[in-house]
Amino acid sequence: MQLKFILNKEEKIWDVQPEEKFLDLLRKNGYLGVKYGCGSGNCGTCTIILDGKAIYSCLLLAPQVQGKKVITIEGLEQEELDLLQESFIEVGAMQCGYCTSGMILSAKALLLKKNNPALEEIKTALTGNLCRCTGYVKPLKAILKVIEKGKLNV
Protein backbone atom coordinates (compact mmCIF):
# COMPACT_ATOMS: atom_id res chain seq x y z
CA MET A 1 0.00 0.00 0.00
CA GLN A 2 1.06 3.61 -0.43
CA LEU A 3 1.63 5.76 2.61
CA LYS A 4 1.38 9.53 2.19
CA PHE A 5 2.42 11.76 5.10
CA ILE A 6 4.56 14.75 6.05
CA LEU A 7 8.01 13.91 7.42
CA ASN A 8 10.12 16.76 8.73
CA LYS A 9 8.09 19.27 6.69
CA GLU A 10 8.41 17.27 3.44
CA GLU A 11 5.67 15.26 1.81
CA LYS A 12 6.56 11.58 1.51
CA ILE A 13 4.91 8.80 -0.43
CA TRP A 14 6.35 5.42 0.47
CA ASP A 15 5.27 1.88 -0.30
CA VAL A 16 4.68 -0.07 2.89
CA GLN A 17 3.39 -3.39 4.08
CA PRO A 18 0.31 -3.11 6.35
CA GLU A 19 2.10 -4.91 9.20
CA GLU A 20 5.34 -2.87 8.90
CA LYS A 21 6.42 -0.97 12.00
CA PHE A 22 6.96 2.72 11.44
CA LEU A 23 10.34 2.53 13.21
CA ASP A 24 11.55 -0.03 10.67
CA LEU A 25 10.25 2.06 7.78
CA LEU A 26 12.06 5.16 8.99
CA ARG A 27 15.35 3.35 9.48
CA LYS A 28 15.02 1.59 6.11
CA ASN A 29 14.70 5.02 4.51
CA GLY A 30 17.79 6.47 6.18
CA TYR A 31 16.33 8.12 9.29
CA LEU A 32 18.82 6.58 11.69
CA GLY A 33 18.36 9.08 14.52
CA VAL A 34 15.34 6.98 15.45
CA LYS A 35 16.88 4.12 17.37
CA TYR A 36 15.72 0.56 17.94
CA GLY A 37 15.86 -0.21 21.64
CA CYS A 38 13.38 -2.55 23.25
CA GLY A 39 10.75 -2.88 20.53
CA SER A 40 8.00 -2.82 23.16
CA GLY A 41 7.57 0.84 24.10
CA ASN A 42 9.59 0.70 27.30
CA CYS A 43 12.74 2.70 26.53
CA GLY A 44 11.88 5.73 24.37
CA THR A 45 14.84 5.49 22.00
CA CYS A 46 12.45 5.33 19.04
CA THR A 47 10.46 8.44 20.01
CA ILE A 48 9.09 10.63 17.22
CA ILE A 49 6.65 13.53 17.28
CA LEU A 50 3.39 12.58 15.59
CA ASP A 51 0.93 15.45 15.14
CA GLY A 52 2.51 17.24 18.11
CA LYS A 53 2.70 14.27 20.49
CA ALA A 54 5.72 12.20 21.52
CA ILE A 55 5.05 8.64 20.29
CA TYR A 56 7.07 5.42 20.32
CA SER A 57 7.55 4.49 16.66
CA CYS A 58 8.21 0.84 17.58
CA LEU A 59 4.55 0.50 18.60
CA LEU A 60 3.20 2.25 15.53
CA LEU A 61 2.23 0.48 12.35
CA ALA A 62 3.28 2.43 9.28
CA PRO A 63 -0.30 2.83 7.95
CA GLN A 64 -1.20 4.68 11.17
CA VAL A 65 0.75 7.76 10.01
CA GLN A 66 -1.32 8.13 6.83
CA GLY A 67 -2.01 11.85 6.35
CA LYS A 68 -0.20 12.86 9.55
CA LYS A 69 2.79 15.07 10.38
CA VAL A 70 5.91 13.37 11.74
CA ILE A 71 9.06 14.93 13.16
CA THR A 72 12.23 12.93 13.78
CA ILE A 73 15.45 14.21 15.34
CA GLU A 74 16.68 14.91 11.79
CA GLY A 75 13.78 17.32 11.36
CA LEU A 76 14.80 19.56 14.24
CA GLU A 77 18.03 20.70 12.64
CA GLN A 78 17.28 23.07 9.82
CA GLU A 79 20.06 25.58 9.10
CA GLU A 80 21.36 25.29 12.65
CA LEU A 81 20.85 23.05 15.64
CA ASP A 82 17.61 23.30 17.58
CA LEU A 83 17.98 25.04 20.94
CA LEU A 84 17.37 21.74 22.71
CA GLN A 85 20.15 20.07 20.73
CA GLU A 86 22.52 22.94 21.52
CA SER A 87 21.63 22.84 25.20
CA PHE A 88 22.12 19.07 25.46
CA ILE A 89 25.61 19.55 24.00
CA GLU A 90 26.45 22.53 26.24
CA VAL A 91 25.55 20.79 29.50
CA GLY A 92 26.87 17.37 28.45
CA ALA A 93 23.46 15.75 28.70
CA MET A 94 24.54 12.63 26.87
CA GLN A 95 27.13 9.94 27.11
CA CYS A 96 26.48 7.02 24.80
CA GLY A 97 23.83 9.08 22.98
CA TYR A 98 21.38 6.24 22.50
CA CYS A 99 18.54 7.87 24.46
CA THR A 100 19.34 11.44 23.42
CA SER A 101 17.11 11.81 20.38
CA GLY A 102 14.15 10.35 22.26
CA MET A 103 14.69 12.70 25.20
CA ILE A 104 15.04 15.72 22.95
CA LEU A 105 11.90 14.86 21.00
CA SER A 106 9.93 14.19 24.18
CA ALA A 107 11.00 17.60 25.50
CA LYS A 108 10.23 19.23 22.15
CA ALA A 109 6.70 17.78 22.12
CA LEU A 110 6.16 19.22 25.60
CA LEU A 111 7.50 22.63 24.57
CA LEU A 112 5.28 22.66 21.49
CA LYS A 113 2.33 22.56 23.91
CA LYS A 114 3.66 24.72 26.72
CA ASN A 115 6.45 27.34 26.66
CA ASN A 116 7.14 27.34 30.37
CA PRO A 117 6.39 23.93 31.88
CA ALA A 118 7.01 23.22 35.54
CA LEU A 119 9.81 20.86 36.56
CA GLU A 120 7.30 18.10 37.32
CA GLU A 121 5.80 18.45 33.83
CA ILE A 122 9.26 18.06 32.30
CA LYS A 123 9.94 14.99 34.41
CA THR A 124 6.61 13.51 33.34
CA ALA A 125 7.42 14.20 29.67
CA LEU A 126 10.73 12.31 30.06
CA THR A 127 9.22 9.42 32.01
CA GLY A 128 9.15 7.13 28.98
CA ASN A 129 12.83 7.65 28.17
CA LEU A 130 15.27 5.23 29.72
CA CYS A 131 18.84 6.46 30.23
CA ARG A 132 21.52 4.22 31.65
CA CYS A 133 24.49 6.59 31.38
CA THR A 134 23.78 10.15 32.52
CA GLY A 135 20.80 9.64 34.74
CA TYR A 136 18.35 12.45 34.29
CA VAL A 137 19.94 15.47 35.97
CA LYS A 138 21.81 16.82 32.95
CA PRO A 139 18.93 16.36 30.47
CA LEU A 140 16.67 18.21 32.92
CA LYS A 141 19.27 20.99 33.20
CA ALA A 142 19.47 21.20 29.41
CA ILE A 143 15.71 21.54 29.04
CA LEU A 144 15.46 24.11 31.85
CA LYS A 145 18.25 26.11 30.22
CA VAL A 146 16.24 26.33 26.99
CA ILE A 147 13.13 27.41 28.89
CA GLU A 148 15.13 30.10 30.74
CA LYS A 149 16.35 31.52 27.41
CA GLY A 150 12.69 32.04 26.59
CA LYS A 151 13.15 32.02 22.84
CA LEU A 152 12.02 28.61 21.76
CA ASN A 153 12.36 27.80 18.06
CA VAL A 154 9.37 25.47 17.93
What does this structure look like?
The protein has helices spanning 22-28, 73-76, 83-91, 100-113, 119-126, 137-149; strands at residues 2-7, 10-15, 47-50, 53-56, 69-71. The model has no long low-confidence stretch (mean pLDDT 92). It has six helices and five strands, in the order E-E-H-E-E-E-H-H-H-H-H. The N and C termini lie far apart (33 Å). A hairpin with a 2-residue loop joins strand 1 and strand 2. The protein is α+β, with helices and mostly antiparallel strands. The protein has two domains: 2-75, Ubiquitin-like (UB roll); 83-149, DNA polymerase, domain 1 (Orthogonal Bundle), CATH 1.10.150. Helix 3 (83-91) packs across helix 6 and helix 4 packs across helix 5 (119-126). The protein is globular and about 45 Å long. The chain has a five-stranded mixed β-sheet. Helices cover 36% and strands 15% of the residues.
